[in-house]
Design brief:
Radius of gyration: 21 Å
Number of helices: 13
Number of strands: 0
Helix content: over 70%
Largest sheet: none
Structural class: mainly alpha
């Protein structure tokens, strides 16, 4: 009975997310001339599109380097960069299959953890990398906000990022000082496998205490990674023929990225488009069709990334079958 209830609850959650995505998309499409979108897709500037593909590959490589840098295991037990890249790629594949921005993280961190026989350290390194990635987005936002005078961030975005900054500081403080459960809690929930895994992950995160140099290296890699990723989205807007200011990407997209991680839609679909239209159309010369077409191009780029992961996963499966 509990399993059936859990399944119904999970299916209901997926249905509500899909309904939210479809509702938002239907509202946006009603107010967007689809004929103009088709014309823009036909006239896409391929130079910007292919440059974005190159940048996305660089993003995947940097994700692999950061993951390998942050994982704390003996140096002789660390796989080569290509192994981390492989797991990043299959993570992209499962993100698309599971229609989730974090579902692929669970798959790739567990797969790598089994390979190195230390799941908790793999998960901890990836969690910390995610936290540093969010911190890098916040840092880039404030950097461009404080140094940019031509474009001002809307008041709701400024309030959101300020709140997020304070929350991130509290989260990082909790993350680098993980608290072990009390003895009573351990005895009460110690038999549950997920509680045990969380406890092991907490112990793995404790290994980062007193290691500011490693955290600084991870933050630098995260800033470079987010710089490339946000530049890809800038290229998507340039590919549809807009003259979007480069700084606007760093003032708007960090908030969009973080909000779309909330479990209120499928893969952020609908929410991403709604936020993009309501923010980027504040700029002169940017219309609804520009935003929707640029977001559609970003989906194509994500599909290409997932396709690479799928090919690598299939090739690896075929090699194991032939052995």
């Amino acid at each position: 009975m509990p399993i059936k209830t859990k399944t119904i609850s999970k299916n209901s959650g997926i249905f509500l997310k899909a309904a939210m995505s479809l509702l938002l998309l239907s509202i946006l499409i009603r107010h967007t001339p689809l004929a103009a979108m088709l014309i823009q897709l036909q006239q896409i500037k391929l130079s910007w599109f292919f440059l974005a593909i190159v940048f996305l590959q660089a993003v995947s490589i940097l994700q692999a380097i950061r993951w390998r840098t942050m994982i704390i295991i003996p140096q002789e037990n660390k796989p080569q960069i290509r192994s981390f890249y492989y797991h990043v790629a299959i993570g992209n594949f499962f993100n698309l299959c599971l229609m989730s921005g974090i579902g692929g993280d669970a798959v790739k961190s567990y797969a790598l953890g089994k390979k190195i026989e230390n799941v908790s350290r793999s998960v901890a390194a990836l969690l910390l990398s995610r936290a540093l990635g969010a911190g890098a987005l916040i840092a880039l936002f404030w950097l461009f906000f404080l140094t940019n005078s031509s474009i001002s961030a809307p008041a709701p975005i400024l309030s959101f990022m300020t709140t997020l900054t304070l929350g991130a500081l509290l989260f990082v403080s909790w993350l680098i000082h993980p608290r072990q459960p009390t003895e009573g809690v351990q005895n009460q929930a110690g038999g549950h496998i997920w509680v045990q895994r969380l406890r092991y992950t907490g112990k793995a995160l404790a290994a980062y205490q007193g290691n500011p140099l490693l955290l600084a290296r991870g933050l630098v890699l995260s800033c470079l990674l987010q710089l490339l990723l946000l530049s890809c989205e800038y290229m998507a807007y340039r590919a549809v023929g807009t003259s979007l200011p480069y700084s606007s990407i760093f003032l708007f997209m960090p908030a969009i990225h973080i909000i779309t991680l909330l479990p209120i839609s499928l893969y952020g679909i609908g929410v991403r488009e709604w936020l993009s239209i309501h923010l980027f159309t504040l700029l002169p010369g940017i219309e609804n069709e520009h935003c929707l077409t640029a977001v559609f191009i970003c989906y194509i780029l994500s599909f290409l990334q997932a396709f690479i992961g799928g090919v690598l996963l299939l090739g690896n499966s075929l090699r194991h079958q032939n052995k």
